[in-house]
Amino acid sequence: MTVFANILLTGLVIAFVLYPLFRRQPASEPDGRLQELRLKQATAYAMLNEIASDHEAGKLSEKDCRELETKYRQEADGILKEIDLLSGGDLSGEIEKGVRQLRRGKGRFCSQCGAPVKPGDRFCPQCGRSLAR
Ligand SMILES: [Zn+2]
Q: How far apart are CA 31 and CA 1, in angstroms?
């Protein structure tokens, strides 16, 4: 039970951290739906990271890990498709803008989209690419 509370909390924290990032381009937002979707997306990826680390720490069984991973993967994919639809395929340029701002900071970055990732992250919080080597 605490595992799930943990997952939820981490997701919320990450979503909270990422939220201002997406608020900087209000002009390109057709409505609040897109922001809502991005929050959901960030949360889903945060969940995936949490599941992976919980599994590694032995808090989740292999079976539970796979089930949860599949669940949030599908959720994230669905959200991504809807974001693409809403943004009219213009999302990549917008992400690039944010990425360039973020690249000035230090840390690891996703090899696919360049988003910053935390040392323990298994999946990119931005595009969901697996970061495991
Ligand atoms: Zn990425």
A: 36
The reply to whether 130 falls in a domain is no
Q: Is residue 30 part of a domain?
A: yes
Task: Print the domain residue range for 80.
Answer: 2-92
Q: Which residues are near ligand 1, the ion (C-beta closer than 5 Å)? A: 110, 112-113, 115, 124, 126-127, 129
Residue 71, pLDDT above cutoff 90: yes
Residue 48: HSE in the Cβ half-sphere, 13 Å Cα cutoff: 27
Looking at the structure of the chain, the number of domains it has is 1
Residue 25, φ and ψ in degrees, nearest 5 = -120, 65
Answer whether 0.90 is exceeded by the pTM.
no
